[in-house]
Each structure stands twice: as C-alpha cells, then as structure tokens.
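FIELD: query
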Amino acid sequence: MPQPHLSTAIIGAGIAGLACGQALRQAGRPVCVFDKGRGPGGRMSTRRLTGAEVDLGAQFFTVRDATFQRQVSAWRRAGHVAAWPDSLWQVTASGWQRHCDDVERMIGNPRMSAVPRQLSEGLDVAHATRIERLEAAADGWWLLDQHEQRHGPFARVVIAIPTPQAEALLAAHAPDLAEACQAVVQRPCWAAWVRFATPLPALSGVDDAWQAVRLEPLPGRAPADEPLRLVTRNDHKPGRHGQGESLSLLAHLEWSEAHLEDDASRVAEALLEAFRERLPRGAVLPEPSELGAHRWRYAQPDDLAAGERVNRDHRRSPSGLALCGDAWRGPRVEDAWLSGHHLGEALAADAP
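FIELD: result
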C-alpha cells in the first residue's frame, strides 16, 4: 500500500493522466492510475474489429512545443510513432484539392493507441475501475470505485478526466476547482467507421493512395447542418496495410451537438452519406460490409480563452487535489500531454 506522504493517485489514463504519472515515476515518486476503460488512451484509443483496427478519436497530431518535440522524437526512435499523412486532401465547393503546408503530422504506430500504451509502461494502472467518490481522512485521500472498493490512502489526487466528470468528484471537497470545471465547455463529437469488402474506386484528379481528407462546409450551410469534417483511411496508416479498406469519419462539433442523442446507426449512415455527397462526380462507393459510430460526449474543450489556459495549464488545491488535461490548455494531443507533464513535474518538485 502506498504511503500517503509520498503517493499520488491519478484518475484517468488518457494522455494527460499518463504524462503526469510518467513525470512522477521518473522522479522516483510512487503513483497509481485508475481508469474506467479496459485499456489506456482515452480519445487516442483504437477500436478492434474483426480483421481490422480503426481510430475513432485523434487521427494524427502535430508538434509545436520543444519539450513535447523531445518526447515525440524519443517515440519516433523507438518506432511508436511515424509521420502521417503525406497525402492529405481538402474538399471545398470547388472540389478536391491537395492540402499542402509545412506542418508535420504524426500518428501512433501501428495504431494510435501505441502512444498511450507506451506512456503507461512502468505505471501501476487499474483498468475497469471507475472512481465515483473521494473521501478525505486523517491519513490522506481515499478513492471509492463502482464496487464501493476503497483505494488509498494517497497524499494527492490528480483528476485527469473531462471537466463535468471531474466537477462531480470535486464539489464536496474543492469548490474552487469545481467552479473552474464549470467554466470549461467540453464539446461532443460523433465518430463513425465503415469497412468495405472491396477497394474504394479511383477518384478523378485525386491520388489513388490518398490518406486523409478535410471537408470544408458548403457555402450557405449552417454549421449544425454540416455533418462531416474529416475522413481517414485506416488501411493506409503505418503498420496496417493489408487489413482491407476502412474509413474513419469524424463529424463537425456543431453537428454532433445538434445530433447528440441520435441513434448511433443513424449517425453512421448520415456521415457516410455526407462523404458520398462530396465525392468527385461519377465516383460510387462500394456497399459497406460493416458500419458503426461512437459518441464522444466530451471530445474536446471549447477553444475560447486558449491563451489563458496555456499560461496556466493545470489547477491545484492546497488540499492535495489537482486537475490536468486538455481542458486547461487546449484541444490538441500536445496540449493534453503538456498539461499532465507540467503538473507531474510540479508535484514531483513539491515532494520531500
């Protein structure tokens, strides 16, 4: 059992929670991570289908910060990430055009979940453990899970989950942190997947090996009426060649909000139909062999006041409770990692 004057519990095994845990572990501080999922990753998780794997959260990520660049370089040397896509397209009212910029984009190899799995190495992670309540006691903090099992005591508790869920844990213990959670809007996103038994058709004027396409809203359409914003080809990602044709389809946030409670099968059909509508003239998709959708109720924070969040990318209370995650910095994978990493370094510096 961890000693409370040294130990830290982390609730949430997404990028932020795992980055915080690694910073503590590398400083020699004992840490335990708890997560309700069956594996690490949060919105960088990968869904396994029969004979295929599809990413339903982040499809790739970028690097801007020097500290994160060093971490990504280490992942790249170890083979955990690779540059992708190198054939990125966009669809406007004028049709399909190649998207060219100087931004290098990265993806987990051989699946996006490779990144959180690497971050979880060396950490004590309790999966399928949903923490539902915190208790403050003389010997430290105790965590109670869905089975009323108690975990602890811990000197500190880091909460690295979406702000509405964090607020529920904090309300009775840290009103200031709970109020901070209320101020962050977490927006939903629908993500669908589709598999085909046969390859996609050639698209006029487009590389046969196109890998991803961004879809700009059509002129005159309200954001809530525009379903689809990004499509990626999972079988064209590093390490997945040969698994058969499959697509990930991510919805616009406004459309996701308007259709939040729709049936998943109807959402999947709507996103696939939106892709059909934006194909070059004459292109016909094969019939899908498998189709489904997943709702991320808290996909990413609203990007308002992002500058203020970057300057203060985590929150702490004198009682030993703390918050990290993309809510406190910005919506990118890099933001989540930096928030957790900076908090872990700060907590490690505090310990004797």
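FIELD: remark
The chain has a mean pLDDT of 93.
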